[in-house]
Amino acid sequence: ASEPLAYKRILLKVSGEVLMGDQGFGIDMNTVKAVAAEVAAVARLGVELCLVIGGGNIFRGLSKAAGDMERSSADYMGMLATVMNALAMQNALEKQGIDTRVQSAIQMNAVCEPFVRRRAIRHLEKGRVVIFAAGTGAPYFTTDTAAALRAAEMNCDALFKGTSVDGVYTADPKKDKTAERYQNLNYLEVLSKDLKVMDASAVSLMRENAIPIVVFSIRTPGALNEVIHGKGTYTVIT
Ligand code: UDP
């Protein structure tokens, strides 16, 4: 714990798919608990933490819009899915003794706070983990973009993307044995090589605001803790 922190305030983006664990759908509570334990460990070090959780484990607008549904309606359903994930994560974090607040981009006052930037900053200063739900509140966006937007608004030192692999590879490491992990990349390489890290609007927003994107494995116990100290394996995009 006495090791210096490489980052003091971060936004961690976890896709909804991570939370389904080995199930094909929905929320696997053991996985939520495991991710919460990773987050709790760094929160206890005094790192100021913002969280954005996707909704793809429950509902993804684009895939449903192809059918009978209006794209905007499908996207609103996707945003509501992120609220469910946020509440599951809040519950798991509080069981581990971490104070949290959920702030939603779509107001639902019986469930959580509305997004109010200055209030969110205050929560961080008080040591609370702030979970941003409902994405940007607008259809045609993704939670990657919401994560980038909140990282910029909240003056985060980095945007952490927790995935199921420990960085960005030249090819899919689960399919191609010759795939190699990049240690460093720049934003333009990610965009021009069309590397599947985050969507292009999220990467562009981070580029414009010079906020590093750190890609690491949220499924490896202790990895977040190492990366926050600048150690372990990850890819950093600057
Ligand atoms: N969504 C949206 N606007 C936003 C964020 C999300 O419309 O600002 C909708 C969109 O339909 C998306 C769904 O919410 O498919 C779930 O989010 P996402 O696909 O980004 O989740 P992830 O892939 O991270 O699990």
From TrEMBL:
Keywords: Allosteric enzyme, ATP-binding, Cytoplasm, Kinase, Nucleotide-binding, Pyrimidine biosynthesis, Transferase. GO terms for biological process: 'de novo' CTP biosynthetic process; UDP biosynthetic process. InterPro entries: AceGlu_kinase-like_sf, Asp/Glu/Uridylate_kinase, Uridylate_kinase, Uridylate_kinase_bac. UMP binds at G55, D75, T136, G137, A138, P139, Y140, F141, T142, T143. It catalyses: UMP + ATP = UDP + ADP. ATP binds at K13, V14, S15, G16, G56, R60, T163, Y169, D172. Residues 8-217 form the Aspartate/glutamate/uridylate kinase domain. GO terms for cellular component: cytosol. GO terms for molecular function: ATP binding; UMP kinase activity. Allosterically activated by GTP. Inhibited by UTP. Pathway: Pyrimidine metabolism; CTP biosynthesis via de novo pathway; UDP from UMP (UMPK route): step 1/1. Residues 21-26 are annotated as: Involved in allosteric activation by GTP. Its EC number is 2.7.4.22. The keyword Transcription does not apply. It is found in: Cytoplasm. Homohexamer. Belongs to the UMP kinase family. Catalyzes the reversible phosphorylation of UMP to UDP. PANTHER family: URIDYLATE KINASE, URIDYLATE KINASE PUMPKIN, CHLOROPLASTIC. NCBIfam families: pyrH_bact (TIGR02075). This is Uridylate kinase. It comes from Asticcacaulis taihuensis.
